[in-house]
User: Fold this.
Amino acid sequence: MEIKTHPLFHGTNQMMWAKGTVVKEPKGFVFLAGSEGLDPNVNEPWPKGAVVVEGGIEAQTRLALEKIKSRLEEMGSSLENICHLWWYLKGPEFPDGIAYSPNMIKARKVREEFFKEHAPSLCMDKNPPPSTLLSVPSLAFKDMLIEITVIAALAD
Amino acid sequence: MEIKTHPLFHGTNQMMWAKGTVVKEPKGFVFLAGSEGLDPNVNEPWPKGAVVVEGGIEAQTRLALEKIKSRLEEMGSSLENICHLWWYLKGPEFPDGIAYSPNMIKARKVREEFFKEHAPSLCMDKNPPPSTLLSVPSLAFKDMLIEITVIAALAD
Amino acid sequence: MEIKTHPLFHGTNQMMWAKGTVVKEPKGFVFLAGSEGLDPNVNEPWPKGAVVVEGGIEAQTRLALEKIKSRLEEMGSSLENICHLWWYLKGPEFPDGIAYSPNMIKARKVREEFFKEHAPSLCMDKNPPPSTLLSVPSLAFKDMLIEITVIAALAD
Assistant:
């Protein structure tokens, strides 16, 4: 398997998201459910068992990224083998764009800290993976502020 | 080809969506267009030919799932080989989360009935597939309440 | 590798989107970041380097499609090997559906012109690829009106 992310430049400046990722001869793929900040330690049947952790967007983003890391590894992949991420931020509206919104600024800071610790090659100044950044009026459960859907390649 | 869905637990309780699906050595993939409740029997050119069936969210969900089943089978796959579903519910907003909204409760009931009949292994208490549940302010055509996008693996 | 798009009929009329695409024995896949109308010639670091081109939805759609074409080719794929497109139109709401909205009518006209020139087999009356058409309350940067996310197969 060979995976390569093509960086994106505007003029001479690298942007914080890539052009895309090409995956050659993968052994397969991992499709994760949307990852979020729901607390996995709440021991109640669904739907009572679906409650976000305390700590706002930062805590939800960190927990979502931790789930992505551990689930990819459980299924034979890794953060470095991510092909695409969809970032869904709860809106409803971001008049100046999602990228500048207070919640996304906080989520991006957590993401950079997380990648710096666990997958430094994905940091903004290195080789950030291709993504789609979207806002939605609401997510599955009350108080959810972020959901991240990932497709990753299977390592050999 | 080997496909395996990893169930999700919060405490000791299984949630109604999975952690993710891992697909090893697939023969290929099927990418379905967003499936919806538009009536395929309306014999008019586009755009007049795009009209939702009567019967609200239940009828639209059932028709969308029937299209998913028949199209996957036509293309060499099946409900059991679904890798990921994106559920798009027309909003604009669900103050208590989409999962508790009247339309999603109805859609989920239809989905459970449909899976019980056609793919019992995907029911909520068995091995529900990984998904992303999102709301959108509007869908392609008037009165569309739900759209479901599916990626599935090709059976051998 | 074999790729086949299955056309969609309502009655005897072909719709402008397909049932789906089946990809057999692909060499791999290309996952593009969401493509948009941000001007790649603005030579400023992020976030100042993320500015939409002038010319509204038409110019943004054309630039997004040009990016998709050139990036797919750079990574060993092509427009003809697109498996699925997600079209995200900035809303917030389209009371008569997105397909009839002024911005989507303009975007579709640009798309048809673009495909006619660069990939005539994808035109509406031939074999249009499977897609999901969604509205979102906002996109990543101010004044972005459209974003298109693509997964494509790798040619042999």
Notes: The radius of gyration of chain C is 16 Å. Chain C touches chain A at residues 27-34, 38-47, 49-50, 67, 71, 74-77, 86, 88, 92, 136-144, 147, 149, 151, 154 (CB under 8 Å).
